[in-house]
Amino acid sequence: MSISTKTALPIILMAILLSLSAFLIQRNLILPAFTNIEKDQAKDNIDRVVRRLEGELRTVDFTVYDWSSWDDTYRFLEDQNDAYVSSNLNADTFWNYGFEIALMMDMEGTPVWAGVYDFQAEEGSVDQTGRHLADILSTANRLSQQIDLEADIDDRKISGVFELDGTPVLYSMRPVHRSDGSGEPRGFVMFGQRLSAKRLADLAQQIVLTFTVAPVNQQTLSDTTTPYTIKALDDEHLKATRLLTVDNKPQLEASVILERNIARLGSEITLYSVSVFVLLSLVLSAMLLVLFRNLVVRPILDLKRDISSISNAMDYSMRAQIRNHDEIGLLSQEFNSMLNVIESNNRQLKKLTETDPLTGLYNRLALDRKLQQAWSILTRTGDPLSVLLIDIDHFKAFNDHYGHLAGDDCLIRIASILQDTIKRDTDMVARYGGEEFLIVLPGTSARDAQIIAKSLIDAVAEARIEHHLSMVKPYVTVSVGLSAVTPSPEYSLKELISSADKALYRAKEQGRNCVCSAPPSG
Hints:
The chain has helices at 3-68, 71-79, 82-88, 91-97, 129-144, 197-207, 218-223, 261-313, 327-354, 364-381, 395-402, 404-421, 446-463, 493-509, and strands spanning 101-105, 111-118, 126-127, 158-164, 167-175, 188-194, 212-215, 228-232, 237-246, 249-259, 385-392, 428-433, 436-442, 478-485, 515-517. By secondary structure, the chain is of the alpha+beta class.
């Protein structure tokens, strides 16, 4: 046997072994990594769908919250005046909201006003109230029984999904009460948004992702053991499914079919790598193994490590560090692009959940977080915490005289004045409810807070917003209740806010357009 043959046989054998090794590496390491990435991407996509549906449901609930705490709605359920109907209850109003279903009924379940519309008909808006009222009223009566009227006002609600003519409807329902929370409920308000094919197409266009929804039935619940269901339909497509839950109750099943681009890319990379091994292993088997591990396996492992780190930390500001100019680098770029979208959506979602849509100020959710954070920090530092509870004087008279839109403009201007007057980044101005605002002043003594409160009163007065029905001045004024305390276990945030509320009540008794203070009772 010639030396060339003896040399060729080990090289050929090594080539075969290296090729086999390359194949095993691809199958057991690289392809599972791509599969995991593909599943993560599928989860992220179906999460986007569910978040969009949840956003629509939050919009419905916020609108119901606004209407149910409106004094005009409360009065309408008492006297059923025509002015309210002509001003507010028309098809254009609900077309602007994007709602097709609206119902107001009294506490006995008798409808006071109802509207069911089809805004997608060829002939324009079609009133379908007569056709669907009985079904909607039956559903509304059943749902109203599930609302706890003894709970906190913000928690007196029920929302979710029900079916109407085979079409899922996102709904929210709340009892109607006065804006200040006083008095007994006079009935219920329910708004609904149909998830029609056109609506789903619009939502799909917004998130650049086509999806479908289906009702949740007993078979769906019995077949679902995890939050996600990821199933390969074939070599080209993947189906991801997730349940939309409200108050831990499954309401709707959302599904999306995705192209398996990542799996295809993984397969292409695998085929390419093995082919290179087969072609070059005869003369470069040892070098090829090193190069293969450096150029293919290691970047994929690094990418997998980056993805695992990001997934475990749930920090979408992190990025994959792969910068290769090849398919893996492109995959890393695509993954980073996806993270950019997720991070942006999270910021927008955080802003939506923490911002009052009318005034642009922080809402109650953000306010509660700020108060808890400030209380925790100041308990350790021993510095004071002051709060200012601000109420627009005779705002109901303003709304009744100038109209709801002028009232909204007034709230926006007052919010802007308060925001401009408060200078420190550590302070917070939030809309507390209706025409009330609350300002958090960490590290501010009662004396300094008194000065700030007077400057706020002066700033509002200097704006000279016309208010001829005010019994204080011919322009808009505010009253301020102040409370300050050095946080400690002897006091609580609830007592602090309650003291500010009592101080505000005292300011109103003293003629309004002034500031009064009251310390927590402890």
